[in-house]
Amino acid sequence: MTAHPTGLLDPFALDFLQRGMLGGALVAILCAVVGTWVVIRGMAFLGEALAHGMLPGVALATVLSLPVLVGGALSAIAMSLGIGALQRRARLSYDTSIGLLFVSMLALGVIIISHSGSFATDATAILFGDILAISSGDLVLLAAAAALGLIVAALFHRSLVALSLDARIASVLGLRPQIAQAALVGLVTLAVVASYQAVGSMLVVGLLLAPAVAAGHWTTRIPTRMALAAVFGVAAVLLGLLASWYAATAAGASVAASAILLACLSWATRTALDSRVARTRRV
Predict the structure, then answer these.
(1) Mean pLDDT for each 10-residue chunk of the chain (283 residues)?
(2) C-alpha dihedral over 20, 49, 150, 17, to 10 degrees?
(3) d(CA 262, CA 7)
(4) What is the DSSP letter of 90?
(5) Which of 43, 216, 227, 244 would you label with 14, given CA atoms 20 to 30 Å apart?
């Protein structure tokens, strides 16, 4: 008979869970850095749109048996460029441009998947990810993506801070706010594409936003918020994988749900502490 893991963390003795945990941790670190800027800049809708914007490329790559990350990256990049083009040439607002392309890309992705003979399977993997299928090669790509994201975020840190305060001030200081904005869109695209296999296109925004929101209740300094968001993100991956193992639930969805749960607990704890401090001062 085969021995089954009995301790709480014993499932991580299995190779595929170790790869899932490591891959998820790399994604969590990247999403913590990028997600902090997304929350500060109020760009959650862009993250959601890009997550769905990569759907046609992923679907086409799946149908043609090509690398899905390449297809997703090309599709997300095309959507980013399309948003900029609609703003400049059609004179549409930022959110209107995103909304139009969001629906268009989502519809196109579903149309492509519907021609596949394994529609249900393909759609489930695309929308909700498969963190337990992360391979050693995927880990190398995720490590490279995380390293690239950290480097770009560090290089543009001052410009992004100035952009968050006032784009005009950033321009006067010679910090090129347009380039900083383009770099941020690129970082969001990178995070969304890198997170695709872990949690899928439907749930990626949860991992992108929830840890940053959870960290925001405890610190106002940007670097500290990024570090704390990474801790929340890694904890969400750990809790999600354990919940998936013991409750037999979908791993990607469990990770995303854990991230949201931690954000709610962070808010509740911060609120309770603030209320207690306020009562103490009144006394």
Answers:
(1) 61 89 93 92 80 80 77 82 74 76 82 66 66 87 91 89 73 72 84 78 83 93 95 95 92 90 95 87 73
(2) 0
(3) 23
(4) S
(5) 227
Residue 184 tokens, joined: 């941020």
Distance CA 152, CA 183 (A): 8
Interatomic CA distance for residues 102 and 98, integer angstroms: 6
Amino acid at 17: L
Please report, in angstroms and rounded to a whole number, the separation of the first and last CA atoms in the chain.
Answer: 65
In this structure, the chain runs to a length of 283
Number of alpha carbons in the 13 Å side-chain half-sphere of residue 187: 31
Cβ within 8 Å of residue 144, ≥6 positions away: none
**What's the pTM value of the predicted model, to 2 decimals?**
0.84
CA distances from 87 to 95, 96, 173, 183 (A): 10, 9, 25, 17
